[in-house]
Amino acid sequence: xxxxxxxxxxxxxxxxxxxxxxxxxxxxxxxxxxxxxxxxxxxxxxxxxxxxxxxxxxxxxxxxxxxxxxxxxxxxxxxxxxxxxxxxxxxxxxxxxxxxxxxxxxxxxxxxxxxxxxxxxxxxxxxxxxxxxxxxxxxxxxxxxxxxxxxxxxxxxxxxxxxxxxxxxxxxxxxxxxxxxxxxxxxxxxxxxxxxxxxxxxxxxxxxxxxxxxxxxxxxxxxxxxxxxxxxxxxxxx
Length: 238
Prior knowledge:
Helix content is 29%, strand content 27%. The protein is built from 4 helices and 10 strands, in the order ααβββαβββαββββ. A hairpin with a 7-residue loop joins strand 4 (131-137) and strand 5.
């Protein structure tokens, strides 16, 4: 294969990933404006009825415009919320419509959703960076493989949580396999953990971790601000 083929695929993959995060950052800016009044002053905060309606309408429009996305919304640092009314502002695609998704946030419950240690929250909130987590099976949602993307959410200059979105891997694979096609058999997009997000051969199937660079392969970093992704491809094939 030629260097130009590799560069072309890197550019397409980079544009795909950067576009997803740009859309999510735009959503974060839209959603945060609905919370400026409710999140004024000092915590604990409570999302009021008017703000929640605005959040729901904005997320519904976002999901309707992105058919391959499974869910989106805001996930807060739990200690910042009023415990008696704490909720995640999250909506999912539900058939032909959009539905609110509720989670158990009572720490005393055996069904408590302890999300703050998960990679997508650690990266988006604690590190304050663009974060891509997965692929993993969403047992609390669609019970299918998804990717989760998050970015920090700020309201009134205070970091309060993350804006996030879930994308079904079926949709991701359909898009990325077309982008990898010019490189032939044996190409894959890797996460920062060297895990295959999408590959076009059996040995590079989704979820496989590449602990050591295979003989006869090369790797090229993607140009995505704040996100460590790379292209793995076979040398010398067309």
